[in-house]
């Protein structure tokens, strides 16, 4: 009796549904300081405006350090000093967006556009906010406005492409992302998101090409290594996938899902010990990860560590007690240890949860046969055969019939020998 080969569970990081957004532009410190110096030398700013610009510069410095609440304090001061300062509203909106205060961000972007309605970056940032709120139509309208103002704005094409991809309009998304790359070939995010679309469309070679381009531009782009690894895995290039996962773990040593995905690649190579080692890392960080428990159990069973597999399935059942397939696999492992009574108990649980799966009856029938309950075995195999027939699985029907005939022949032989 063989342990069921469970379908691999693929965790995609950086997928289209959960991708990062491209931040709106924040002027560099050098740019702002030079602007202040020009203003001072030309006396082109009043004292209040000059002070507001200083506050804005300080806020941007905190923003770049990831100190968003401190940044907001300085943007507030800039606005208090100059209530018509579009840049301050805009950059406070960007910061609120980073803090996931999307409605607060919208208020600031709307105010900034009232002051300066021809500011393309604000339309892009407001579009990103609408997109994060699920309002893709308003998001696209804002990106369109940005492109009317600046037809060669790569970031407007990029973000509109991301929004189209979330709408699953992949054709239009690829058009926009490709246009962004024509304008700015070094825009790593455009390669990355186009790679994701190719991945979702099962065009894995094109996906790999785009992820490779992403990494040539930005060698620290973890999501690109991860997703290139997934694409390599899909193509059966397990060693290349493992190399990409290794790179992720060099950059981020506790990246839990990379250990998981690398373990799957190890399983494909039948390197079960390495797979178990990776699943151990997953479970060290997340002891209740049921998929890692199930996959580690599978790997242990392949190494004939059936007791280890049983232990993992038992842990998994504490987390998900109504999962028939966990009982099924534990039953298979128990049968391998010739614990047929325990196996039958597990198959009983399977059938109680899902009485329409013929494999459950078939394996219970084999366990009953091995327990010398031949009549019970034949009854189960007949039930399995009946369901297989309804499913149109003629090969499985034939196998069940052959087993029934074998048991009947053996039973008759035993009767003759007793006489």
Write the layout of secondary structure elements.
Elements: H1 29-42, H2 47-64, H3 68-81, H4 86-98, H5 102-115, H6 120-132, H7 136-149, H8 154-166, H9 170-183, H10 188-200, H11 204-217, H12 222-234, H13 238-251, H14 256-268, H15 272-285, H16 290-302, H17 306-319, H18 324-336, H19 340-353, H20 358-370, H21 374-391, H22 394-418
Helix pairs in contact: 1-2, 2-3, 2-4, 3-4, 4-5, 5-6, 6-7, 6-8, 7-8, 8-9, 8-10, 9-10, 10-11, 10-12, 11-12, 12-13, 13-14, 14-15, 15-16, 16-17, 17-18, 18-19, 19-20, 20-21, 21-22
Describe this structure in words.
- With 419 residues, the protein is mainly α.
- Helix content is 76%, strand content 0%.
- It starts with 28 loop residues before the first helix and ends with a helix.
- The N terminus and C terminus are likely disordered.
Spans where pLDDT lies below 50 across 5 or more residues: 1-45, 415-419
Strand content: under 5%
Shape: elongated
Task: Describe the oligomeric state of these chains in a short phrase.
Answer: single chain
Query: Pairing-aware structural class of the strands and helices?
Result: mainly alpha
Largest sheet: none
Query: Count of helical segments?
Result: 22
N-to-C CA distance:
32 Å
> Quick check: average pLDDT?
88
The strand count comes to 0
The helix/strand order is: HHHHHHHHHHHHHHHHHHHHHH
What Rg do the Cα atoms give? 31 Å
Helix content: over 70%
Short description:
With 419 residues, the protein is mostly helical. Helix content is 76%, strand content 0%.
Key structural traits:
elongated, disordered C terminus, single chain, 22 helices, mainly alpha, 419 residues
